[in-house]
Amino acid sequence: MPEIPDTVLLEERAELAMNAVAGLPDTDPDTGMDGIPYFSADLLARPAALRHGDWDYGSSHGRLLDACLLARHMTGKDTWREVEDGFRRRLASFFGPDGLSYRRARPDAGWPPNANLIDQRAVLLSLTTWYVSDGDPEARRLADRHVAALKRIAIKERDVWFYPASEYTPDGWPSPNAIALHLAPDPASFSGRLIMPLLRYHQATGNEDALELCGWFARLIVHKSGVFHEDGGFNAARAYRSGHFHTRLGTLEGLARYARHTGDHELTAYVRRSYDWALTRATRFGWTPGDLEGQRHEHESCSLVDLIGTGVTLARSGHTGYWGVVERFLRNHLVESQLLDLSWVESAPDTSGDEPGWVTHVRVGERVRGAFAGYGAPNDYVCDIELGRGHTADVQACCVGSGVRGLFWGWNSVVTGDDRDVRVNLLLTRATEQVTVLSHLPHEGRVDLDVHQDLRELRMRVPEWAGYAKVRVTRDGDGFDGTRPGAWAPDGYLSVRAPRRGERITVTFPVPESTSTEDASGREFRVRWRGDDVIGISPEGTARPMYSGRKVHPTAPRRDYPLSRPATEWAW
User: In this structure, are residues 100 and 149 in contact, taking their beta carbons and an 8 Å threshold?
Assistant: First the structure.
């Protein structure tokens, strides 16, 4: 087994997250839920609780099936196939004769069957990943019918298409449950976030209805909705959700992809204005407010994943400065928001306190190990403060699935390129058919590049904080530093010409330490940095503190780990 630096490894984090993905389904035969996953967890309760909710259906199944497929590709492992097949089977069962995904009726809770528009995005996301991953004709059949239904139910006016309510019912528009859910018609929630999976499905299959919907929804958001202000800011007055970050950022991710697909540079500039504005409301390490009002003190991992996805899309569109933003978010708040320490969680010894079909208290911590924070604080996995809504959900199924997608965005972007040149965009460990990247950060400013194919050119992004004068490149029979003419490519990347198969190239550079004061919706935190890594934050958290356990060594520790190296890469 090969020895590698013991530093952040995204594929390993995806495998750890699969414990939570597999732990959420309610498989107790006495509940009759047949594997429907619990949606949320309260880990501060004594004992801790897993709870069902009205997001259990298309939303949770779409996110969690997507996570299964992405983790399988990242790790090369198929150990959770039974779990994946369960999500696939149940997701298919939610489709109505009209092609939409319906939530099951729960008369005891007053929930009628309905096709929630937010659910449809997660459903199409998973169907698209299912098809891209496996080429399964069943996924394409379901997705084609789903896209056709999304087009059919849209209200079509001369210059705009839109959905008039949060839910569609077997009897059509509207749903009385829309009022109970407090989901006013919100173009970002119902239409904008659909653009990303619709476009990828079109790219995978050529489905023209999907592309047409992208165009109409992009027009709705940019020219009609008022979701974003002229300066890029989120409109807090637009609908009930008060500038909800997850839906706004997910909309930007779709618009960024559509702009890249169509070559619309004006639309890319539109996205950048709002993305840059959103970065001013987030911390540099990746915490985001839930919205601009009542949820502003709560961070959803879903929002961070949207920031990562949009940053990746903008960087791949040529705005390479965003790679540094993406790397900071991956190294810090995404991996730090993953629940690995369970010493503070108390579960019940038996089912005597359970409410079958609604709540369980048994093995809660064990089941959600690997989950990403549902609502967290900048310094704590749990958000438990007097401001805003106070303590709510510590785990949400949507954030569990999204966390894996965020890991995939990063993993899939570490190395990119074509026959002309190969680029190392993120200084994180990753193996590909062309090159293996071994990162020693944050312990050492060192990245080893093991070349597996003869290449015309290998480029590597060097962080801005590393400068250039002290950058050193060591390779077989040669070496140079950052001051040598020709050391840098026109795009600002370090350039290594004509690397050969079997060669190891080592790049070293200084790693400075610094401090910053970060504002999180009016609360200040003092942050210590080493390069792009947070190594301490003050004040510290209380329930499950973040960042307080990070250690830096003079040289990177080593460990044995077999890196996955897919023979076939596919991008999402």
Answer: yes
User: Each residue of 412-447: pLDDT tens digit?
Assistant: 999 999 877 899 999 999 999 999 999 999 999 999
Half-sphere exposure of residue 31: CA atoms within 13 angstroms, side-chain side: 20
First to last CA, the chain: 30
Per-residue pLDDT reduced to its tens digit, 17-37: 999 999 999 999 989 899 999
CA distance 188 to 244: 9
Give per-residue pLDDT as tens, 244-255: 999 999 999 999
Which residue in 17, 14, 42 sits closest to 369, CA to CA? 17
In Å, how far from its chain's centre is CA 19?
17
DSSP structure string for 257-280: HHHHHHT-HHHHHHHHHHHHHHHH
User: In which residue are the tokens 């990245």 written?
Assistant: 447
* pLDDT higher than threshold 60 for residue 181: no
In the sheet with 415-417, reading across from the earlier edge strand, the strands are: 415-417, 422-424, 457-460, 494-497
Q: How confident is the model at residue 179 (pLDDT cuts 50, 70, 90)?
A: very low
**Amino acid 241: pLDDT:** 63
Tens of pLDDT, residues 346-378: 999 999 999 999 999 999 999 999 999 999 999
| Structure token pair of residue 421 | 């040149």
176 falls in which pLDDT band (50, 70, 90)?
low
Per the CB < 8 A criterion, the answer to whether 243 and 293 are in contact is yes
Distance CA 509, CA 343 (A): 38
Asked if 551 contacts 504 with a C-beta cutoff of 8 angstroms, the reply is: no
* C-alpha torsion angle, residues 176, 177, 183, 185 (rounded to 10): -40
DSSP assignment of 351-371 equals GGG-BTTTEE-BSHHHHHTTP
Give domain limits for the chain: 3-415
- What totals of helices (H) and strands (E) does the chain contain, helices first? 16, 23
Whole-number pLDDT of residue 183: 47
User: Which residues touch 41 (CB under 8 Å, ≥6 apart)?
Assistant: 48, 49, 50, 51, 364, 368, 371, 374, 393, 394, 395
- Return the structure tokens found at 134: 């496996």
CA distances from 254 to 262, 313, 438, 564 (A): 12, 9, 32, 29
Q: Look at residue 239 in the predicted model and tell me its pLDDT.
A: 55
DSSP of 148-207 = HHHHHHSEE-SS-EE--SSEEBTTBS--THHHHTT----HHHHTGGGHHHHHHHHHHH--
Instruction: Give me 185's structure tokens.
Output: 């018609």
Exposed, middle or buried by CB within 10 Å (0-12, 13-18, 19+), for 517? Answer: exposed
3-415 in CATH: which number?
A: 1.50.10.10
Residue 178 has pLDDT above 60, yes or no: no
Sign of the dihedral defined by the CA atoms of residues 111, 115, 120, 123, in that order: positive
Omega before 174 within 30 of 0, i.e. cis: yes
